[in-house]
């Protein structure tokens, strides 16, 4: 896909794109809902839906506002989480190794470091090339307590910070979070790390390449294998570019099972260890260099780097891989990305204009992160146990069961519901509904039950008005007469059976959050 886009990019003038819709577009209300969930992680308010129902042309103004919402940074982290695969539960070193007690917080912070750089670039409208050229990273107080990071005393939360161990400035390429995720071994010699860089930043996966390999080569003989990497055409086709790329990473050479001190700091004394590992001088697809800073600038200048960001954004926003028929739209998004100063807001703004993004019949399954975010926005509920966010972890959590990727064994998200995603949705809906009704019973500032007293059954007209408002807030649509009648019948039935009106509201909210349209949008 990227190579096809690159051909277009080098052909001179951008390919013209027909501005007329090629597929029927969804309604303005549905488009508003999709954009709100994708760009700011929660549903539009009923007032916003009513406004675009009255004036469909207003939807683009709302989308422009959503792009400026603080939630945009979290959206960026979610869409890049799949290619980066850094949100693991288990790491080579644990919080206790640094005298820290918050194991869930430590594990989450390590994985978020590269993604927080991306979201900062997005929210501060920095050029995307900053990702591999910045002289800063992102850290919170947990990482600052473990790693050599300049972080303000007494501060808390994620902030721009700098490593203090002399590592070359190269943005995400210089982070512990990336190289703890992608380890190496004494025999691998940083090659798997180089392959990860190519896959993540260039959308060029060495493992996808077709090679012709001589099966008579005895790979169990280390000397024979080393000679094959230089002389065997099947090996050379990859290793001629892979090994020089790996040679940039000597300062992070700490093989698996290394100690805490080894893995915590950068090792400038090992920058030339390539002489004893790959034997190939550092180079970027034929262009020589010396340090990680050189590598960062080489990647930033590579057209594939920009093409890859377009492809990854498209894949997240449309929840499918680009096809050849998408090349004109992708080319247009690339041109908008460049014209917008390579800001991720400009790229996202272009993708949401695409006909396929607005297609009437295309539905997307929410990621577990997005599902958790919209539930929290509606109800204030977070599914947490023993410090672990159950929708964003797997060791004690439900992320993979909810259709998510764990970054290790499950590397792609589910595109359609499964039996386990439905079960997770059910349990989350039940817990969140109980939570929000309990909160609305206890406080004057009610979150969902704004028209009724949860502890007394209201007159029918008031109950129905509350049902309609709930439906608008939870499902972003006004119920038809039949659905409203069914919800009211459920409300009556549970209230009469239990004698406790608040349980009737719990049941109604649970049913709405179990609706397929709550997770398919």
Structure description:
Among the domains are: 121 residues, no CATH class; 152 residues, no CATH class. 49% of the residues lie in helices and 3% in strands. The strands form three sheets. The chain has a three-stranded antiparallel beta sheet. Strands 4-5 form a two-stranded antiparallel ribbon. A hairpin with a 2-residue loop joins strand 4 and strand 5. The chain is elongated and about 85 Å long.
Topology:
Blueprint (H helix, E strand, L loop, with lengths): L1 H8 L18 H13 L5 H9 L4 H8 L5 H13 L18 H21 L13 E3 L1 H4 L4 E2 L8 E5 L12 H6 L9 H12 L19 H10 L1 H14 L13 H5 L18 E2 L2 E2 L3 H9 L2 H16 L8 H13 L4 H8 L16 H12 L4 E2 L2 E2 L29 H24 L17 H16 L5 H18 L2 H13 L2 H4 L2
Helix pairs in contact: 1-14, 2-3, 2-4, 5-6, 9-11, 10-11, 14-15, 15-16, 17-18, 18-21, 19-21, 20-21
So what's the overall shape? Answer: elongated
**Distance N to C terminus:** 26 Å
Low-confidence stretches: 6-12, 14-20
- Helical proportion? 40-55%
Number of helices: 22
Strand order in the sheet with the most strands: 1-3-2
Number of strands: 7
Radius of gyration: 26 Å
Q: Main beta sheet: strand number and arrangement?
A: 3 strands, antiparallel
Strand content: under 5%
Classify the secondary structure makeup into a structural class.
mainly alpha
What would the average pLDDT be, to the nearest integer? Answer: 92
H/E element order: HHHHHHEHEEHHHHHEEHHHHHEEHHHHH
């Amino acid at each position: 896909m990227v190579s096809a886009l690159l051909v277009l990019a080098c052909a001179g003038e951008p390919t013209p794109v027909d501005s007329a819709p090629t597929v029927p577009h969804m309604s303005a209300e549905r488009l508003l809902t999709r954009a709100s969930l994708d760009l700011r992680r929660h549903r539009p308010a009923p007032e916003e839906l009513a406004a675009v129902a009255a004036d469909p042309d207003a939807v683009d103004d709302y989308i422009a506002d959503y792009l400026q919402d603080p939630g945009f940074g979290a959206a960026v982290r979610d869409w890049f989480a799949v290619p980066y695969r850094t949100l693991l539960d288990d790491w080579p070193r644990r919080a206790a190794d640094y005298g820290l007690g918050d194991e869930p917080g430590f594990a989450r912070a390590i994985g978020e470091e590269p993604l927080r750089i991306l979201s900062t670039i997005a929210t501060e409208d920095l050029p995307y090339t900053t990702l591999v050229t910045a002289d800063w990273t992102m850290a919170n107080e947990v990482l600052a307590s473990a790693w050599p990071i300049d972080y303000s005393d007494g501060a808390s939360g994620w902030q721009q910070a700098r490593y203090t161990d002399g590592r070359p400035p190269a943005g995400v390429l210089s982070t512990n979070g990336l190289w703890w995720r992608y380890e190496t071994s004494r025999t691998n010699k940083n090659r798997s790390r180089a392959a990860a860089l190519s896959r993540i930043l260039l959308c060029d996966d060495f493992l996808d390449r077709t090679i012709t390999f001589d099966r008579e080569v005895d790979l169990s003989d280390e000397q024979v294998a080393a000679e094959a990497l230089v002389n065997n055409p099947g090996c050379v086709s990859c290793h001629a570019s892979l090994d020089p790329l790996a040679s940039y990473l000597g300062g992070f050479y700490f093989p698996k099972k290394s100690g805490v001190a080894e893995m915590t700091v950068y090792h400038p004394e090992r920058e030339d260890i390539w002489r004893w590992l790959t034997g190939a001088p550092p180079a970027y697809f034929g262009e020589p260099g010396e340090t990680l800073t050189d590598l960062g600038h080489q990647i930033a200048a590579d057209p594939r780097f920009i093409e890859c960001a377009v492809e990854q954004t498209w894949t997240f926003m449309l929840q499918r891989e680009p096809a050849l028929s998408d090349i004109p739209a992708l080319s247009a998004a690339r041109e908008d990305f460049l014209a917008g100063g390579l800001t991720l807001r400009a790229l996202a703004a272009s993708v949401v204009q695409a006909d396929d993004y607005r297609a009437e019949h295309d539905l997307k399954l929410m990621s577990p992160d997005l599902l958790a975010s919209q539930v929290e926005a509606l109800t204030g509920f977070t599914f947490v146990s023993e410090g672990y966010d159950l929708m964003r972890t797997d060791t004690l959590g439900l992320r993979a069961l909810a259709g998510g990727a764990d970054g290790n064994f499950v590397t792609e998200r589910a595109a359609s519901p499964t039996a386990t995603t439905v079960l997770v949705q059910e349990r989350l809906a039940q817990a969140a509904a109980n939570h929000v009704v309990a909160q609305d019973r206890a406080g004057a500032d009610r979150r969902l039950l704004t028209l009724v007293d949860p502890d007394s059954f209201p007159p029918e007209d008031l109950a129905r008005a509350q049902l309609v408002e709930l439906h608008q807030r939870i499902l972003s649509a006004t119920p038809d007469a039949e659905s409203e009648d069914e919800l009211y019948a459920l409300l009556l039935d549970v209230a009469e059976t239990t004698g406790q009106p608040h349980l009737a509201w719990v049941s109604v909210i649970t049913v709405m959050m179990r609706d397929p349209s709550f997770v398919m949008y």
